């Protein structure tokens, strides 16, 4: 008779919550649990709330890797990350990056300019929704040399979700205060804006709301067809708006568009 892993994880989940007492210990416990199920090269845990800078709760990166995977990511590229957008919906569950990525993500400038620096073959995330609009994403990553997670491994990770959710709810019950503190620190000494940095970019560049919506989706990796479906407009209208934006900004490529976007986030 086989073991009912799903039932086992649902039982164990609430019990393991008391183990973790802080970011580091909770992160180590998560990694230990995952290593009992699958192999992976890296793990990272981020907390997301609205359009605020994500909080880095735990990672297994070296200092050099941390620069690319965390510091550079938090500086702005997170706003174009499929995991970030899934966290904001929220979209709880266990997801492969490729399941969440827009149709042109893997040919987008964001992917070419930032994501390829990570050298990853695949990333899988546990998306655990908390109160106050916060979602914690616990990611397992494999380098190109390690290959992707198999179907059987992915199915096993999906069954482990209740156990991971139990750990998260007990280890990080009050992240709202940490986000509030980080937000207060970021606005200290200057007038607080009513608009998040991501929204101020388009206001500063004098783009209309429609133009901003389209260009954000372009940068995220959506095709004109995908953008049209999401916004309820024709593909031709999307292309006209895109040309107008390029003309306004005096650019001719997505590379230049991404550069302007990231510079104006600072």
UniProtKB/TrEMBL annotation:
Instruction: Tell me the ranges covered by the HTH luxR-type domain, including all copies.
Output: 200-265
Q: Does the keyword Transmembrane helix apply?
A: no
Which molecular function term from Gene Ontology is one that the record holds?
A: DNA binding
Q: Which Gene3D superfamilies match?
A: Winged helix-like DNA-binding domain superfamily/Winged helix DNA-binding domain
The signal sequence is none
A Pfam family matched in the record? GerE
Q: Which GO terms describe its biological process?
A: regulation of DNA-templated transcription
Is Transcription regulation found in the keyword set?
yes
Write the record's keywords in alphabetical order, separated by commas.
Answer: DNA-binding, Transcription, Transcription regulation
Q: What is this protein called?
A: Helix-turn-helix transcriptional regulator
Q: What is the species listed in this Swiss-Prot or TrEMBL entry? A: Neorhizobium lilium
């Amino acid at each position: 008779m086989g073991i009912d892993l799903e039932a086992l994880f649902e039982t164990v989940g609430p019990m393991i919550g008391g183990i973790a007492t802080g970011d580091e210990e909770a992160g180590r416990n998560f990694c230990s649990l995952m290593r009992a199920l699958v192999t992976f090269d890296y793990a990272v845990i981020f907390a997301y709330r609205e359009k605020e800078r994500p909080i880095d709760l735990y990672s297994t990166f070296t200092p050099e890797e941390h620069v690319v995977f965390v510091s550079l990511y938090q500086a702005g590229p997170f706003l174009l990350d499929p995991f970030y957008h899934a966290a904001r919906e929220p979209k709880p569950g266990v997801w492969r990056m490729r399941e969440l990525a827009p149709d042109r993500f893997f040919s987008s400038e964001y992917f070419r300019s930032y994501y390829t620096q990570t050298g990853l073959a695949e990333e899988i995330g546990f998306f655990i929704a908390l109160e106050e609009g916060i979602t914690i994403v616990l990611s397992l990553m494999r380098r190109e040399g390690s290959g992707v997670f198999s179907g059987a491994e992915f199915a096993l990770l999906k069954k482990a979700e209740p156990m991971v959710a139990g750990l998260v709810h007990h280890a990080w019950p009050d992240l709202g205060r940490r986000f509030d503190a980080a937000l207060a620190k970021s606005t200290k000494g200057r007038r607080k804006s009513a608009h998040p940095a991501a929204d101020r970019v388009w206001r500063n560049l004098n783009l209309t709301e429609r133009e901003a919506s389209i260009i954000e989706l372009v940068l995220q990796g959506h095709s004109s067809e995908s953008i049209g479906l999401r916004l309820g407009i024709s593909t031709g209208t999307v292309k006209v708006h895109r040309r107008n934006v390029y003309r306004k900004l005096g650019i001719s490529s997505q590379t230049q568009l991404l550069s302007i976007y990231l510079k104006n986030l600072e």
